[in-house]
Amino acid sequence: MYFEDLDLNDNVLDALYDMRFDECTPIQEKCIPEILKGHDVLGVAQTGTGKTAAYLLPVLSKLADGGYPESAINCVIMSPTRELAQQIDQGMQGFAYYLNGVSCVAVYGGNDGNRYDQELKSLALGADVVIATPGRFISHISLGNVDLSKVSFFILDEADRMLDMGFSDDIMTIAKKLPSTCQTIMFSATMPPKIEELAKSLLKNPIEIKLAVSRPAEKIQQKAYVCYETQKMGIIKDIFKAGDLKRVIIFSGSKQKVKQIAASLNRKHINCGEMHSDLDQEQRNDVMFKFKSGQIDVLVATDIVSRGIDIDDIAMVINYDVPHDAEDYVHRIGRTARADRDGKAITFVNEDDIYFFQQIESFLEKEVEKAQLPAELGEGPEYKSNSKPKKGSNSAKSRRKKDRDHQSHKDKKQGNNKQRNRRPVPQTQNTTDENDIKRQENKVANKQNNNALKQKENNPVTTSANKKNNRQGKGRQQERQTKTDNEKRNERKPSNNKGNVESTANQQNKKSNNKRKKRNNRQRTSEEKSVRRSTKYDIREELPSTSNNESGLKALIKKPLKWLRGLGKK
Q: Would you tell me which CATH number, out of the four given (3.20.20.140, 3.10.450.50, 3.90.25.10, 3.40.50.300), belongs to the domain 3-211?
């Protein structure tokens, strides 16, 4: 069917004639008459079939015919992304070229203050058609900048995508503010249950038009390479060596990998650009302009470009990694073979993505041709039926983390992770004991005690009364008491002395056992145990001549005794 056969406004037909649009696509042929009749429409069709023109042409035609209030918003078009909103706005300007008095404004985030002021002015004056992303439009509504009381057309483009992005509540909020007489039109590439529920909530006795639900165009030549992750860049190099370099989109599931791929291609002197969420709106516009105008041959992008972006002459789409949703695969490869052109779709399937690609083949109801790897890259993994990966192993979060590990800052990132996740490395006993000794020495220094007090504190027989005297600073009494105690100890039998040593050692061993539990039951040598029992003295300095079979505690006892004996001789 030709556009001239439809009941469209003459000015709209003139614009179509100048744009060399003569024949309708199937979705346009079925939707335009129903919209012109005033029916609610639910249209389901694959990407690249002309859905945008299917609702813009009849709405513009009705606005051009008149009968709608001036200085008021008459049509609201919701778009899931800024890029699609811009594209609808551009199409609107082309179709309405000969229409006088029909104004349009695109409302989306990521702009500067001047752009925001322009949005406010257009909304206040009552632009006939408002093309908006849900988040930004809700913001204007909450601020009281929008009057929706006279809206006659409410259109949802890529409705399934908007629901996937979490805009369901925003859409319902906007719909509740619209007049009950408003004509609602909904377009979607798929028809999941959530779309059916939304349609029931918004549409009144809709006309359902379904065409080839989520099936790629037949003219797309699909091919897959079963390869390892390290072989993918080599395959791209081989493909581009064959001359297939112009008008190519490479899709990846994460922005980190997009940056990595773009950097690798630039090092190979391939004229490429990148598109992902880290770019601001000005940068996105610049990249898309350069790609559409041919200044960039290869565009590396996330799924932000996979839906609704109208670039007619894309020669090839490369899926650097396999999308885990069959619908996303269809949307990606739907960028090529548009407007009855031929196109190629190539997918790299590594060993972890075999299961998901087999699910895509099941969805397509056909087996995708498996291409032979270039000889210099060696053999790839075997393409065999795999079970579904364990839950969480292929989540979006884990894939993003895995992608980050392949970036240039990988070492830094991994180093931080290692510091976070590394189990504490046990210190040697000597190092630990040195720290303990230093802490004890600092404690004694703070109390400003003399050498005699230090010796007395190391004496295991010291009484509480003597400790009190020590705190009062009675130095002479300390010396006399220390001498008396030491003489008594010398008169004791060796067995009693040994018993005291063993008793003290047992107490120390109990403390050491608790510490050994906290240190993963690490075994200590006999020398380490003796060092551990010290509390006030630096064993290395105080006991240079101590024998190996003599405990540290015995050495501590003998040291002050020798000093006292020397005083007696003097």
A: 3.40.50.300
